[in-house]
Design brief:
globular, alpha+beta
Length: 148
């Protein structure tokens, strides 16, 4: 099973809940377990919010989500100044701000930050999917699994 979503979005706060709803509706229709969908929602929110706060004003950004069997990969791509994720300081544990990268790293099975100074940044988040018993996503993923 291969499903891809490509969303070109305006860099404004209203795009974040719309993006979450679109991706969550797709995952829910496939039967992805709720706790996995919740993690994906938070990771996506953090990545999109960082674009809105830190990329160049007025630019669009792209959210590209792909589901391949039991894996979801989300790429959030902007055309801002770029950033070096290793140079972002660890946030104060009680701070309400500056925790986005830490949250993404803790919820994703794999995370990658690529920066292209003055040309933007890419945040790639990967999450293993668990499907409810009998769900369409589970059945479709099973059809591609090697038979014993």
């Amino acid at each position: 099973m291969d499903i891809s979503l490509d969303l070109l979005l305006p860099r404004e706060t209203a795009s974040v809940p719309a993006t979450r709803k679109i991706l969550d509706a797709s995952l829910q229709a496939l039967g992805v377990d709720e706790h996995i969908r919740d993690d994906i929602e938070v990771m996506l929110t953090e990545a999109c919010t960082n674009v809105i706060k830190h990329a160049r004003h007025g630019d669009d950004y792209t959210v590209r989500a792909s589901i391949h069997d039991e894996r979801c990969v989300i790429k959030v791509i902007d055309s801002g100044r770029g950033f070096d994720a290793e140079r972002i300081p660890e946030p104060d544990p009680v701070s309400e701000a500056g925790r986005g990268l830490m949250i993404m790293r803790s919820l994703a099975d794999d995370v990658r930050f690529d920066s292209y100074p003055e040309d933007g940044a890419l945040v790639a988040l990967e999450k293993h999917l668990d499907y409810a018993a009998g769900s369409i996503g589970g059945r479709l993923a099973d059809t591609r699994s090697p038979q014993s």
